UniProtKB/TrEMBL annotation:
Active-site residue numbers: 235 (proton donor)
The protein's Enzyme Commission number: 5.3.1.23
This protein's pathway: Amino-acid biosynthesis; L-methionine biosynthesis via salvage pathway; L-methionine from S-methyl-5-thio-alpha-D-ribose 1-phosphate: step 1/6
An annotated GO BP: L-methionine salvage from methylthioadenosine
Function: Catalyzes the interconversion of methylthioribose-1-phosphate (MTR-1-P) into methylthioribulose-1-phosphate (MTRu-1-P).
Protein's name according to its UniProt entry: Methylthioribose-1-phosphate isomerase
Entry keyword set: Amino-acid biosynthesis, Isomerase, Methionine biosynthesis
Biological classification of the source: Bacteria, Bacillati, Bacillota, Bacilli, Bacillales
Amino acid sequence: MRAMEWNGETLLLLDQLQLPGAVKWIECSDVEQVAEAIETMKVRGAPAIGAAAAFGIVMGARQAVNRDKNEFFNQIERICDRLARTRPTAVNLFWAIQRIKSLIETNADLDVPQIVELIRREAESIMTEDIAINQSIGQNGEPYIPKGARILTHCNTGSLATAGYGTALGVIRAAHSAGKEITVWADETRPYLQGARLTAFELQQDQIPVTIVTDSMAGHLMKEKKVDLVIVGADRIAANGDTANKIGTYSLAVLAHYHHIPFYVAAPTSTLDFSIKSGEQIEIEQRSADEVLSIGGIRIAPPGVAALHPAFDVTPHSLITAIITEKGVVESPDANRMEYLRGKG
């Protein structure tokens, strides 16, 4: 299953708020529709957000193709600013935007229609490259998964969070394909229930044994020696290996450390942000309290009660066993060891 399809003119996004109850596609023909889909989490997952934003720029560029060059460049800047405001934590969003802006700057002497065509090709490359990158992450991570492993994962890091195949779920898929007879514990992942709705759905489709658990059950499972490793994705990784991921990840890392269980992060190198030294500099997105106070549009808390909703937390590098990327694996990550991945760029 794919999170998006590009038909050459419009971007089709799988509405992930409807899964698994219904498979509904949203057709986006302009930047604002893409931005709204990202903001409302109809499309989510750092790599998928980056790819969607790239196609948003394509559609915006096409709508400005008949403007003079200066007006065109100004419009592209406005488009990129709008997309950049949708989700502040996932660095892949900014990576994709900057990749296209750099392409435009390099080819600024071309005619506007030629630049628009280059933007289209670049967006398509971002999408196709992401699938190959994820498959490489899976291959690099598979040796870290023992036969018969009982794996705990959090949120959704599969095909629905990427252009295809997945990051942490890609490693799980690779281990399954290798015949390792793994089983998966899927955290339900409040408040959007990405684990219960999306990860369980993907694993079921792949016939990988999966059991849903509430987020608060993880410590009990570890204490009962029913978890062999934890593997999660990432939305931003600082230069020292500190990792921002879906809220609840930090708790899992602390629990895994206490119970001497390996804790792995799987992510593409586009998620690395060497411009920040540590996780303390990562901006944490604060989402609406209504998303915590309600489930499926039904309020579960008394009227007038407040709620806090940071969408992400940061796991210190000292709690991470290894960071798995398409360019290699960094064990016991810190600022010095992370330089290996910068060099591989």
